[in-house]
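Researcher: Good morning. I'm working through a list of sequences from a screen, and I'd like to move beyond sequence-only analysis. For each chain I'm collecting a predicted structure so we can compare shapes side by side. This is the next one on the list. No need for commentary yet; just the structure.
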Amino acid sequence: MSAARNLLKFAWLEVTGLCNEFCDHCYAASSPKGTHGTMTVPDWKNTIDQLSTMGARDVQFIGGEPTLYPHLRELIEHAHGTGLAIEVFSNLTHIRDELWETFTTCGVKLATSYYSDSAEDHDAVTQLRGSHKRTRANVEKALSLDIPLRGGVVAVREGQRVQEAARDLTALGVGTVGGDRTRAFGRASQGAAPTIADLCGHCAHEKCAIGPTGDVWPCVLGRFLTIGNVRETPLADIWGGARMATVTADIAAVHGEGVQSCTPPQFLPMCGPCGPCVPSVGHCDPREAGTGVEAASIGAPA
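Model: Good morning. Structure tokens for this chain:
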């Protein structure tokens, strides 16, 4: 598909590989030993400007844990100034007061992962003692500030209380709760090489991900399919370039032409498992994730 027909509408901006949690299933292999990479603040601002110029409508700041990135507030304000809609995917354990202010001022939406209604169960996944207490408290704070918030429940281990986690979030007032299974990327792959077959097939369709070193990927999970680097090449040239064409052809060869699946739902701000899409993506065909979390019962917006 040509760049003219495949408009870039959404981008994940992975501003850091640093995370205060150490989840076994982390697709990005983030950890307390991660770094902010080589992208400078001017690099990120330039990239955001390019996205806006290309007609993108939404960006999602991710990590690692994006709230640990010292310049997140500045980048959010810059993206807001260009007219982009913004979501931050955070574990919600480390929100500074000034970030709350920025979230409300810039109309930021939030998304978070939640693994159990049990603190012991949740903390066993994150490997960070006290993470459940802090995440749950900040879910409540976000809702009290009328900040839109989505929750994602990922089935990671046997016996995990995923249904109870979803019900807990719903009881708190979270309107959209998605579910997904562990996917074999990053630490979750346990050393196995990633393959295109493990992707959903929707990669590079109207969306891309940009990492802490400037590498551009077809999605956050497809980081083994680098299509360029924004520190070396304008994003428009990358999006319409030969490498992009090769990668999209390779994906189509495995998944078929026209695949429109938007799974895994917890990574996309425009897709709850049963919710309507935002204007960025006018089509949605989410798949059952096989987590034991019934999307039909917990995914519909309130």
